[in-house]
Write a structure and sequence with these properties.
Chain lengths: 289, 146
């Protein structure tokens, strides 16, 4: 029996307020695969199809991504996430596990100016995950070092507008912010394929394979790929075997924990006991105050 | 894992690596947008080679891929590729997006030989499952044209 410590973001001492929550999960742990970027479309049937395909392929968690592009010219409203119960009546069960798929909401802010991202805005609280897509080098540096975000998106549809430097990337890795590469553009178009691979390889060179997640930016069910397919793609991008698998499983889980700590402003420490015989659905949680 | 023979009589050192099977086997299922479309085995092989060529160029297209078994009703095929070419073939199948202007997806159902990818208990289920099987070379039947 061994204990494995899964920590979320370590909070700065000033943020610790009152008692800290400690969750202890007892149960077998299998690889949990997640796809944290499924583009939202107003067509309910299409979205339902994507969710069902994701469950069929073995993803335990997906996040519906609302892309928000603020412009300084006209004031735009931050999109309101549609409640999951409205989207789909009964969540499909994940292939190979006994639990239904977990669906989260995520907001991606496409930033071309530093005033576009306002983390204290109340509209951002409705989303479980927060992502930032910087378009200039200054914004990238600021997003890595300062911004209160979980995910930094790397553009895959165009030539990189700036070169990745080690300093901001190391800063982001220390803070627990992850970099995301989407692969469905590579499926759609040949030119995009070149950009995806080029940008991903560039990123892996700078960050040495740490804190990277691979996700689809799927609009249709046929653009999703299974978790082991994506692990193989990770090898193509320059990740090692272990890093590539982590990019679809444990790093994604770290992002979810990071998002929880960001929202509740205190630290969460998960410890889990790994047992040989799998106890089905016997997660035992107790809270220490 | 691989037994190594060494000959020590002569001046040079020769290392012989014995590999049980130089091939990897992939069981794939092609999902098309229009579910009534059917492909013959030759068309499928042509499609796979085109995919390899698009992603990995002439070197990829020169890879020896064989379609060992093919069920044209369910569009399920058993592919064989040399071990060095597994990553190339698998990645080109993943990134194949369209067949004759309709969207498609290759679902890889099984890959032979446990690799670092599979480290949990093997799961079996009805249709799509990530399982690991040892496919023996005796099962090869060249039912399709090379």
């Amino acid at each position: 029996m061994s204990f494995r410590l899964l920590t979320g973001r370590t909070p700065a001492p000033s943020r610790l307020c009152g008692p800290t929550l400690v969750y202890v999960c007892i149960g077998g742990i299998m690889s949990v695969f997640m796809d944290l970027n499924v583009l939202f479309s107003p067509d309910r049937n299409r979205l339902r199809g994507v969710i069902e395909t994701a469950a069929h392929l073995g993803f335990s968690t997906i996040a519906i991504n609302y892309v928000f592009e603020p412009s300084s010219k006209k004031k735009q409203e931050v999109p309101v996430p549609c409640p999951i119960s409205e989207l789909i009546d009964q969540l499909p069960v994940v292939q190979g596990r006994s639990r239904p798929i977990r669906v989260l909401n995520r907001l991606t802010v496409l930033m071309s100016d530093s005033s576009h991202f306002r983390p204290s805005a109340p509209e951002y609280r409705r989303f479980d995950l927060l992502a930032v897509h910087p378009t200039t080098e200054k914004l990238f540096h600021a997003a890595c070092m300062l911004y209160d975000t979980d995910i930094i998106c790397i553009s895959v549809t165009e030539k990189l507008p700036f070169i990745f430097k080690r300093a901001p990337i190391n800063g982001a890795v220390e803070r627990g912010v992850v970099f995301e590469v989407s692969y469905s553009a590579a499926i759609r178009d040949a030119t995009m394929r070149r950009y995806t691979i080029a940008n991903a390889v560039c990123l892996m060179d700078s960050c040495k394979g740490k804190n990277v997640i691979l996700s689809s930016a799927a609009e249709k069910a046929l653009e999703l790929r299974g978790p082991y397919d994506i692990t193989n793609l990770g090898l193509l991008f320059g990740l090692s075997d272990g890093d590539a698998k982590e990019a679809v499983s444990s790093t994604c889980r770290a992002v979810l924990l990071h998002a929880e700590t960001r929202r509740t402003a205190s630290g969460i420490v998960y410890t889990s006991r790994i047992q040989q015989e799998a106890l089905q659905d016997s997660d035992c949680r107790f809270r220490l105050t | 894992m691989k037994p190594v023979d060494q000959k020590e009589e002569s001046v040079y050192q020769r290392v012989v690596l014995k590999n049980a099977s130089p091939y990897h086997y992939l069981k794939v299922h092609l999902v098309l947008e229009n579910e009534t479309t059917r492909l013959t085995a030759v068309e499928l092989k042509q499609f796979i080679i085109t995919g390899l060529k698009t992603l990995h160029g002439e070197v990829g297209a020169a890879l020896n891929v064989d379609v060992l078994k093919y069920d044209d009703d369910s569009l399920t095929a058993l592919l064989r590729v040399s071990s060095r070419g597994l990553v190339k073939l698998w990645s080109s199948l993943t990134l194949l997006g369209s067949y004759q202007n309709q969207a498609c997806a290759f679902r890889v159902l099984q890959v032979s030989r446990p690799t670092l990818f599979f480290n949990g208990p093997v799961q079996y289920s009805q249709n799509y499952h990530w399982g690991v099987t040892e496919v023996h070379p005796e099962q090869e039947t060249n039912t399709c044209l090379p």
